[in-house]
Structures are given as structure tokens and as C-alpha cells.
Write a structure and sequence with these properties.
five-stranded parallel beta sheet, 8 helices, Arc Repressor Mutant, subunit A, Rossmann fold, alpha/beta, 2 domains, four-stranded antiparallel beta sheet
Amino acid sequence: MSSPKSIFFVEDDLSFGAVLKSYLEICNHKITWLSDGKHAVSAFREGHYDLCLLDVMLPNVDGFAIGREIRSMDIRIPIIYLTAKSLKEDILEGYRLGADDYIVKPFDADVLIYKIAVLLKRAEGEAGNSNQQYRIGKYVFDSRLREVKLGVARQLLSPKEAALLQLLCEHRNELLPRELALKRIWGDDGYFTTRSMDVFITKLRKFFREDPSVEIRNIHGSGFIMTYNN
């Protein structure tokens, strides 16, 4: 049997939440369950999880808002939204915010278990193929520690800075589409998030100013290309 995976579960229906938590544990998962959205983000930040299962309609802070914050901290963790809302607009909103799946209540628990297994397997594959360190010219970027090193000097990055830099490294010498970065990191491609990303790009350029070979070029209307010497 594979080792238990840790699932972050937020659901305010106490009866439904208790039943689903027990079923997930029977299926060899470790569950952290919160029944209120108020402290969900801080609880997620304090733990380490393999997947998030978020109800949308929660007291104090809704599941979409929680998912947006979680996605800003971890761009790769699978997120499944659970909801009684079946309107097309709500489903599209979930996917726009970076959902990996969206399940409308009531649902078959075995189907949920299958979807969780598929997403966990995909995430493990991506993690296995994902670099934790990138050599960027004279610098070394550690995506796990969120730091850029030049000799003994270290620059700690914010979660969004690190996520954006990792995407640029993964697309080295290729176009990183603006929309891809915005939706993956910010969960939105509106005007104000676009301006926010431009600020982050400017900050990243400053981090690498000691090495002229490192260049992040703006391709007008399309995105960015990062080039550097190794």
C-alpha cells in the first residue's frame, strides 16, 4: 500500500464533512479538516499538503478566495472545489482560479476518490520532473527555498516572485505567455493583475543586475522571454 497522502479539506457541513473525512481516511489519506474558511489560509501555510479539497460556500471566507491564496503560495498543488452551485458561471470561475477539478454536490464518493488518485499521480510526476535548482548565469535559484544566490549573497523571494521566476526558467529561451503566468500565479488576467505582474518582472530584473547575460525581455502583447548564459 502506498504511503498516505495529506489532504487539506475545508467544509462547513459538519455531518457531510465528518462522513467524507472518515471515508477518505479509510482510503489511506491523512485529512486535515476545517469547518470555517476564516483560518484556512493560515492553517494551510503551517502544514504540508499534497492536495486541497475546498467547499465553495463557506462562512467568513469562501472557497474561491481560499483557493486563490493557496495558489499564490503553491502553484502546483492540486485543488478540487466541492459545491452545490452548478451554474456554468460558478464552474468557470473555479477553473479560472486554477482549479484542477470541480465537483457538484451530491456526488459519488468513489468518483471523488478516483479523481483524487489521478491528480495525486499527476502531481507526483510533475514533481519528479521539476527542478528545484536552476543556474541562471552567475546565480543559483532554489525554487524550494525561494532564494537566489550569488556567491555567499542570498536574496529571498516572495511566493509570487519565486513562482514567476520558476515559470521563466522552465520557458528559458522561449516565450512565457502573459496569460499563462497570470492565471497560473494570480488566478486572474485582468488589468490590475497584469500591472502587478509587470512590477514583479521589474523586481526580478533587479535581482540579476550583476550579470548582464541575464535578460528578461518583454514581447509586446504576448509575454516574456528569459535568456542567460550558463
